[in-house]
Amino acid sequence: MTAIADRPHLLSEQFEAVARSLAREAEELRPELIHGKLGVKPVPDGDHGRIIQWLTRICIQAGPELWVHDQGLRVETYRTGHARPDGVLAPADVFVGHGEWADAGPALMVVEVTSYDSDSDSDSDSDSDTDRRDRVEKPRAYAETGIPVYALIDRDSCEVIVHSVPDGVRYERSDRIPFGKAVELPAPVGIRLDTEPLMGWVR
After folding, report:
1. Domain residue extents for the chain
2. What is the pLDDT of residues 104-127, one digit of tens each?
3. Rounded CA gap, 101 and 71, in Å?
4. Could you tell me the CA-to-CA distances from 20 to 5, 13, 25, 81, 198 in Å, in that order?
5. Of 198, 162, 163, nearest to 179 (Cα)?
6. Which of 10, 15, 99, 191 is 20 to 30 A removed from 200 (C-alpha atoms)?
7. Superfamily name with CATH number, domain 44-200
């Protein structure tokens, strides 16, 4: 996620207008608004997409009524934030009839997969931004919203970080599991992940 402006008082309506404008200009831009800061997510690479496929197959095998959606969510306490997680685990039909941005209430889990800079394998600005957005700001925003589970698939540290038990401010529990070991996603998800395949989808 690359920050493009610090607008601490950007309103929800203003953001949605900007997001529509960006979508018309370039389909690959995926804007977000987290804690008043406007940014765009980088275009996913092939391994990133494969990880989402892997997760989707496991989830629908565990619960055929579930799906990993590509859905924008209104987040944070007063719903002024707008996040587009890499995946939103929720019942398959729950977002039917919603627009680009939906209430996060039906989400059982949100998933983020860390991205690589498109021009180089190591970019300090990109790395620090990923650290701030995926590892600091988004856990707080998702916890404020009450999303039960936030799973970060961190391709830099080769870990899955599972945040759970939101208290309205932060997640009370965070478990770090290295790639190659099993991950037990807590209730209401209740799915076990064998993370061995993730080791083949990192640089």
Report:
1. 44-200
2. 999 999 999 998 754 444 444 445
3. 7
4. 17, 11, 9, 15, 34
5. 198
6. 191
7. tt1808, chain A (3.90.1570.10)
